Q: What sequence folds into this?
């Protein structure tokens, strides 16, 4: 029998908010986490974005705050949520407002790259729920504009990402500043040694809930692979996005990953030179630039977004049809996070990896350490000539697609380019991201997001 929200012990206002969100059933992490959190237990959640973990910690915590009914503390908060990036902090704050819409709680968020003075004023009277990036939070604490003495519930979200961003000292400091009798909910997608140490520091006898093995790629994502030279990647991308080379799935929103900020900007610039509008999102973009890029992507106004890992981690955008790994990540788990941006909330998704000769080792690691299996796609006809600018291309006939290494799902592929025991998405005709004016060669439409001096960073 499937577990219903009504089985979990949530209050009426929270149930109504869920109704307003249109959620019918709890996700596995919600079903497992909500009852012990309502009982006041500490929790260790091993889960990545897309599993419904935000609601898993937010819903019972809202109820716990309501039940305790304590006053809002001066220059402090009752519940503190720490998140690695501005984008994630913004999303969590929005969830707190959505889920707590009928609970009458005061929610604020503070992140780096915005005015500290405004934050200071905002926090003067305290709040029920504060969502913060660690850097900005400590800034305000050091300025005596805020303290953690009122914290009843502490949540660390994407703790492994916070460590990757160098927040270890900040987290150690914060652990000394929160009251010892608080409740702690600790979330991480992966469990390296340093995270285990932090869990020991923060949690008391936690209930552990793990929803997906740390490095398992989502079932509903069909994964494809192009073996392509580094200097051919941009041309291949352009041919795909302009529908001159057919790939599986219909383009709706396309998220492209690069390893570097510079690489992301370069792709956006080159796409714009052939009339394909795209935005970049990475740590060197100012907060307004990032917000605009995300908003245009969400509204499908500019449905192509080029991102680095840090910027994209935790971003929750429904309707990402394709994730393109323009460069393969050197950490296999990052691959899982990247492709997890598609196939969210029950949808299917397509992930396409570009692998150059010097990335074969990364591909092998991804195959070995995750359950990823790829179907290899052929390059366009005359491709080398197209790259060198001396010939046209025509779409590859469907039957030319070759399946390589047709092992069942889960089998590791020796050469790192195994086939997916797939459901044959290969035949579907791609559409194209909706673009104003169409993808004319040399159209050179500029996007606002790709310019501007570097300001701020994604860690608060
Ligand atoms: P998260 O893992 O918290 O980032 O959530 C991923 C997405 O799933 C968000 O868009 C949520 O709004 C959505 N979501 C969370 N819980 C549910 C649920 N029980 N039913 C349907 N969608 C949900």
A:
């Amino acid at each position: 029998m499937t577990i219903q929200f009504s089985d979990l012990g949530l209050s009426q206002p929270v149930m109504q908010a869920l109704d307003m969100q249109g959620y019918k059933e709890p996700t596995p992490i919600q079903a497992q986490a909500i009852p012990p959190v309502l009982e006041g237990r500490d929790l260790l959640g091993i889960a990545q974005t897309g599993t419904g973990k935000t609601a898993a910690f937010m819903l019972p915590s809202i109820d716990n705050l309501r039940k305790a009914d304590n006053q809002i503390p001066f220059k402090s908060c009752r519940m503190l949520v720490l998140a690695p990036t501005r984008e994630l902090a913004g999303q969590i704050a929005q969830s707190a407002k959505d889920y707590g819409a009928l609970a009458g709680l005061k929610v604020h968020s503070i992140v780096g790259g915005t005015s500290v003075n405004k934050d200071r004023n905002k926090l003067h009277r305290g709040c029920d729920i504060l969502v913060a990036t660690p850097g900005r939070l400590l800034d305000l604490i050091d300025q005596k504009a805020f303290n953690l003495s009122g914290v009843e519930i502490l949540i660390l979200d994407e703790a492994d990402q916070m460590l990757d961003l160098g927040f270890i000292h900040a987290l150690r400091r914060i652990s000394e500043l929160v009251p010892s009798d608080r409740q702690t909910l600790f979330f991480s997608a992966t469990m390296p040694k340093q995270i285990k140490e932090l869990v020991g520091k923060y949690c008391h006898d936690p209930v552990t809930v793990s929803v997906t093995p740390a490095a398992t790629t989502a079932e509903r994502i069909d994964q494809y692979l192009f073996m392509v030279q580094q200097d051919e990647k941009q041309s291949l991308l352009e041919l795909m996005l302009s529908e001159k080379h057919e790939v599986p799935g219909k383009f709706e929103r396309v998220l492209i990953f690069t390893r570097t900020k510079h690489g992301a900007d370069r792709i956006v610039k080159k796409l714009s030179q052939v009339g394909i509008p795209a935005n970049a999102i990475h740590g060197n973009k100012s907060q307004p630039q990032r917000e605009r890029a995300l908003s245009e992507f969400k509204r499908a106004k500019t449905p192509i977004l080029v991102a680095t890992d840090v910027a994209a981690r935790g971003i929750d955008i429904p309707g990402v049809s394709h994730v393109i790994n323009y460069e393969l990540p050197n950490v296999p788990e990052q691959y899982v996070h990247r492709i997890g941006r598609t196939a969210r909330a029950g949808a299917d998704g397509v992930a396409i990896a570009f692998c150059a000769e010097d990335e074969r080792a990364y591909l092998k690691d991804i195959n070995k350490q995750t359950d990823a299996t790829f179907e290899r796609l052929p390059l366009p006809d005359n491709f080398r000539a197209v790259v060198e600018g001396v010939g046209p291309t025509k779409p590859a006939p469907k039957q030319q697609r070759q399946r390589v290494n047709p092992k069942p799902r889960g089998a590791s592929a020796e050469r790192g380019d195994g086939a997916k025991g797939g459901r044959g998405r290969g035949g579907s005709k791609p559409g194209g991201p909706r673009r104003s004016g169409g993808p004319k060669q040399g159209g050179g439409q500029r996007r606002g997001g790709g310019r501007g001096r570097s300001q701020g960073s994604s860690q608060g």
Observations:
- DSSP finds 16 helices and 14 strands in the chain.
- The domain at 221-398 is CATH 3.40.50.300 (Rossmann fold).
- The chain has a mean pLDDT of 82.
- Residues 23, 26-27, 30, 49-55, 316, 318, 344-345 surround adenosine monophosphate (CB under 6 Å).
